[in-house]
Prior knowledge:
There is one protein chain. The protein is an alpha/beta fold. It is built from five helices and nine strands. The protein has helices spanning 3-27, 88-100, 117-126, 143-150, 185-200; strands spanning 42-44, 48-50, 58-61, 64-68, 74-79, 106-111, 132-136, 166-170, 176-180. The strands form three sheets. It has a five-stranded mixed sheet with strand order 7-6-5-8-9. It has a two-stranded antiparallel sheet with strand order 1-2. A two-stranded antiparallel ribbon has the order 3-4. The radius of gyration is 22 Å and the shape is elongated. The termini are far apart. The mean pLDDT is 84.
Amino acid sequence: MSKLLKGIILIVTLGLPISIYLFLQTFGENMYALPVYPETSYASTDCGTVAVDYTVGKLTCDSADVVVLGDQQTYLFHFPDRSKTDIAGEMNEMRRLVEETKPLDYRLITMSNEGQVDKWDKLAASQDGNRYWVVTSACADGLEQLMNCQLLLSQFTLETEGSKSRMVLVDKVGRVRGFYASAEKGEMDRLLVELDVLMQEK
């Protein structure tokens, strides 16, 4: 093979991947889009009709406002498994979530039962003061309706075994953007990625 032919092959071999990379950097848009829930309108006996453009404005329980949204904040609602007494694993995952998302601006609200609220409150208080993390046992009796109807958790099928702990991600305009199992490491890894993606949305 002549030196000229070898040179041409070398240039093409090196130049083609570089030119593809530069083209994609210039014209490509590498964004992962989070879904908006509900993806279709639906009706249920307990919750009534939920339209596809549903937004969360406030969370109510027994006709009282528990959380009022609408201040251009991203919210992450956490509902620990109320039937569990050993919550150390889930607490570790929540601690990791808070530590790994320190630069992100969102509000974390844990809605627990009275048997667990002290443990969650101590964990929240031990974290950096920059994180807005509220722990409450308000609405213990009406929590199922709040979770399933107001935050659409009835539409979320948990694919993990064991814990019934849940998290719901709500964006700045009140749209439900994700559901997670808060006691599972893989689910929390997914939440970390999706929370970062949501913060980059325009």
